[in-house]
């Protein structure tokens, strides 16, 4: 297992869209090697936060750092290469085999240049072989091993969503940003994904920041929870503490958090 990742610090992030404050002075820390959930009702600012962390949105104020490394304002590819990878809510993977898609994830780690690869120089061929072997290991870890050579188009919805997860893991991230990893999955697929996430965190020792509407899953998987409402942090702490918080219950319009969808 690799060494523990540095903490991911979010400090005083504010994002405004025209007259609307999507994030209002938001601060939290993803502790090394933990699973941290970011939850809140629709429009609370969760996606905006992910967009800031992955470099898609520049905040009006505030900073994001991974340990000592400042990430605020860096371009998407730079943030990814510094160890922060993300998955997207909607599956984008439809073409190629599972292996092809995982190799795309390895692309940014390739040292061999285009010319060396095109000319099939021995060093480039060796490097490709190593990347493919690592992609296979990650496929095994995420339960996709037997599907490595299968076209993604033929996979079930749950497996395709796991290809997206495995592709992000192929970047060898230290922090993984997971945007609704079980959205649209059936009960069996959800349970399988929870298992895979636990294995991945244990085996790879990375930190995970999770946005997920499935409260039962969040409560089972996360060690820390940050709750947003209208861009503000309204509660933070261990799942049972957050769940009992009156303001959190109010934000969810009286719907007790535990009675939402179950995996
Ligand atoms: N590009 C944008 N331009 C204008 N307003 C935006 C933009 N992106 C988000 N918003 C607004 O910012 C607020 C926060 O949206 P965001 O998508 O971050 O919430 P969310 O918590 O991810 O919601 P959901 O759970 O529905 O995905 C919302 O009021 C949304 O309408």
From TrEMBL:
It comes from Streptomyces zhihengii. It holds the Pfam family ABC_tran. Gene3D superfamilies: P-loop containing nucleotide triphosphate hydrolases. Keywords: ATP-binding, Nucleotide-binding, Transport. Residues 8-255 form the ABC transporter domain. This is ABC transporter ATP-binding protein. The keyword Protein transport does not apply. One of its GO terms (molecular function) is ATP binding. InterPro entries: AAA+_ATPase (IPR003593), ABC_AA/LPS_Transport (IPR051120), ABC_transporter-like_ATP-bd (IPR003439), ABC_transporter-like_CS (IPR017871), BCA_ABC_TP_C (IPR032823), P-loop_NTPase (IPR027417).
